[in-house]
Amino acid sequence: MKEYMSNFSAASFWDIPCLETVLDTEIDKTSKVSFNVSNQSARFLKKDKIVHLCEVALPTNAVVSKNGTMVASPELVFLQLACKLDIHRLILLGLQLCSHPPGNPSEAITTKHKLKSFLAKTPGHHGHRKALRAVKYIEDGSASVMESIAYMILTLPHALGGYGLDGTVFNHEIKLNNEAAKRLGQKRCFADLYYKQAKLAVEYESFAFHNSPMEQGKDAMRSAILERQNVEVMHLSTIQLYNKDACMDFAFNLASRIGKRMQIRAKEFDQMHGLLRTLLPVGKPVVESGDGEY
Q1: pLDDT band for position 285 (50/70/90)?
Q2: pTM, two decimal places
Q3: In the listed set 102, 135, 168, which residue is the last one of a domain according to the structure?
Q4: Is the domain of 109 the same as that of 171?
């Protein structure tokens, strides 16, 4: 194989949701297309290309043909960008690679299982250790980049700047009883984040989809119906997420309700939490998909 599209160019090729938010300024550092080659003799320079050399053997299907273009697979892109992104942006990249609309897992670009399986076959590659660390905190099923960031802030361990409230899943399906289904006009709801053992749903309320009286009314109706089905609902607003103190208050309340005691003792917490919060988009709107059936 002489060459294949790789790195940031391959990430753009796969149309990862909200990639500009994930990579921030990293994706703007070059306008040239990145390619990988497998041996020194195939390495070359052209005005419109950046060429990387990778002589370590890759597993089958690490490079795929799509629409007539040879390109690094999503799993290989994740490994390649582990060398270029800090740990927080790498985790966010993985979450977005594994994201999909609620109830439609087939629309995900890849899955946590595929990422782990690929990494198990690629020891010795640059970025492998960081990629293995990041994949531990990646889960399938986020429906938006803001859900992904909220998940990271709430669940990452203290040493990475999160509140350590792990054990949640994205967009858990909750089936409604017949009476509730008739009132809402739907047979199921999806909780943005769901703690199964505590039967507690955390709903992220973005400005884009929850700022009108109509939407706020629907949210209140859904919450009341779910609580009648013994599912507690906590609402996390954009204002709370962006305000450090308000977000911590929310996290402490959440910890209490899921039966955890939150004691932050990691020396790295303040620094890493500050870095984690830089993922929040500033001064630009984030275009997200709608909330589907919930």
Answers
A1: very low
A2: 0.87
A3: 135
A4: no
Mean pLDDT for the stretch of residues 144-163 = 97
Q: How confident is the model at residue 290 (pLDDT cuts 50, 70, 90)?
A: very low
CA 270 to chain centre: 22
Reading phi first (left if > 0) and then psi (alpha if -120 to 50, else beta), residue 252 is in: alpha
Q: Measured between alpha carbons, how far is residue 141 from residues 63, 95, 118, 226 in Å?
A: 24, 8, 19, 21
Residue found under tokens 């669940």: 155
Q: Quote the tokens at residue 70.
A: 């040879």
> Does residue 285 form part of some domain?
no
Give 145's contacts (C-beta < 8 A, 6+ positions apart): 17, 18, 21, 22, 92, 96, 99, 286, 288
Structural domain of residue 25, as residue ranges? Answer: 4-135
Could you give the angle at the alpha carbon of 40 between the alpha carbons of 37 and 46, nearest 5°?
Answer: 60
Predicted confidence band at 292 (pLDDT cuts at 50, 70, 90)? very low
